[in-house]
Amino acid sequence: MPQREERGPGAAEIFRACGLFRTLSPQWIETLGAEALVRRYRRGQRIFRQGEECPGLYCVGRGLVRVYKVAPSGKEHVLHFADPGKTFAEVAALGPFVLPAHAEAVEDSICAVLPTGCLQRLLREHHELCLQLLSGMSFWVRQLVGLLEDIVLRDAVGRVAHHVLEADTSAGAELFSLPVMKKDLASHLNLTSETLSRSLRRLADSGLIEMTVQQQIRILNAGALREVAEGLLPAEFD
């Protein structure tokens, strides 16, 4: 089913909440918003395919998008999840390059899409925009470095603990569900599904989190969980 799209003020509103555009002036946010499209995707809908020409830079306004690669063997690896305020296909649009990965809506989603041609034209014509966007890109690169550190420097339990801390928006006050399927989360954290389940159970058995039969989670000891995420195992985790 083709995506629904429209022009309108919604794109600028989405861009104002975008981490990549945090350093842009209000004038440039409005300019980019006027050039962008707002597209709606149903849950499970493919947004684009690996190897295709890049349609543009995408920013999520609502929902959740899974960005993943497929190996020649057919195995999928989830690169990252884009939730509201996050972008994807940035490098391909700025390059411009062909798309290095697939993207699919995990939930019903709304994205603002700045077409590649428009973005390239604006960058060629306006050095001020380039400089402001470079500053925003530095934050984006720092996030990528953080993802690499998560995989390289943390063990399996540390990665899971770190993700649980990031997923909880209630500071331990409420139960919450991980927003994606376990197999996708395991792939994103470079773990097997079995290792992910064992790590969650170990955190629960140690009294750091509570898990219900519906697989909802509550953080019981945020300080100790943060120590596990940083590789410093507290006594109650032994």
Note down, in words, how this protein is organized:
- This protein is of the alpha+beta class.
- It has two domains: 149 residues, Jelly Rolls; 84 residues, Winged helix-like DNA-binding domain superfamily/Winged helix DNA-binding domain (Arc Repressor Mutant, subunit A), CATH 1.10.10.
- The chain contains nine helices and eleven strands.
- A five-stranded antiparallel β-sheet has the order 1-2-9-4-7.
- α1 crosses α2, α6 crosses α8 and α6 packs across α9.
- The longest helix is centred in the middle third of the chain and has 27 residues.
- The protein is globular.
- The model has no long low-confidence stretch (mean pLDDT 86).
CATH topology of the largest domain: Jelly Rolls
CATH class of the largest domain: Mainly Beta
Q: In the CATH hierarchy, what is the architecture of the largest domain at level 2? A: Sandwich
Structural class: alpha+beta
Q: What percent of residues adopt helix (DSSP H or I)? A: 40-55%
Number of helices: 9
Rg from alpha-carbon coordinates: 19 Å
Spans of at least 5 consecutive residues whose pLDDT stays below 50 are: none
- Beta-strand percentage range: 15-25%
Subunit arrangement of the protein: single chain
Strand line-up across the major sheet: 1-2-9-4-7
Instruction: Please identify which CATH superfamily of the largest domain we are dealing with.
Output: Jelly Rolls
Order of helices and strands: EHHEEEEEEHEEHHHHHEEH
Number of domains: 2
Shape: globular
Largest sheet: 5 strands, antiparallel
Please give the number of β-strands. 11
Gap from first CA to last CA: 51 Å
- The chain-level mean pLDDT equals 86
